[in-house]
């Protein structure tokens, strides 16, 4: 396990690939959710709404794992582990809309749940390759 992103896997964090965010629910059960994300070199950022299970789970237990699989070579994977650092308001769902553009979505309208949207900032501390 590395504390830095292996250079030959960094592209998986830079490309618009949907990853899978794993958390543990307050009742102890695992929860997996596909997520669009951005990477700033130290943190993953994902969009979420406050009432949903993923938000509740990370509030109860801030630890997470995030798996990114290369769509061009499915045996090539990067697992990121860390914890929820902070949650920021997503005013007007702007981060959500920016994510959509990053992933090729053309609808530029805020979603109906825009008032509940937040940006979860996840510290990335360990990296495992497969």
Automatic annotation (TrEMBL):
InterPro entries for the chain:
F420H2_bilvrd_red/Heme_oxyg (IPR052019), Pyridox_Oxase_N (IPR011576), Split_barrel_FMN-bd (IPR012349)
Gene3D superfamilies, per the entry: Electron Transport, Fmn-binding Protein, Chain A
Superkingdom, according to UniProt? Answer: Bacteria
A Pfam family found in this protein is PNPOx_N
Boundaries of every Pyridoxamine 5'-phosphate oxidase N-terminal domain copy:
9-128
**Which PANTHER family would you find in this protein's record?**
HEME OXYGENASE HI_0854-RELATED
Protein name, UniProt field: Pyridoxamine 5'-phosphate oxidase family protein
Q: Which UniProt keywords apply?
A: Oxidoreductase
């Amino acid at each position: 396990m590395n504390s830095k992103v292996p250079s030959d896997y960094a592209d998986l964090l830079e490309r618009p690939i949907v990853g899978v965010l794993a958390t543990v629910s307050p009742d102890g059960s695992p929860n997996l959710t596909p997520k669009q994300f951005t990477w700033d070199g130290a943190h993953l950022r994902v969009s979420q709404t406050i009432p949903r299970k993923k938000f509740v789970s990370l509030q109860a237990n801030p630890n997470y794992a995030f798996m990114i699989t290369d769509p061009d070579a499915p045996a090539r994977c990067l697992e990121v582990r860390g914890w929820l650092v902070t949650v920021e308001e997503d005013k007007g769902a702007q981060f959500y809309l920016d994510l959509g553009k990053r992933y090729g979505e053309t609808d530029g309208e805020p979603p109906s749940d825009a008032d509940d949207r937040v940006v979860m900032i996840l510290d990335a501390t360990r990296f495992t390759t497969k």
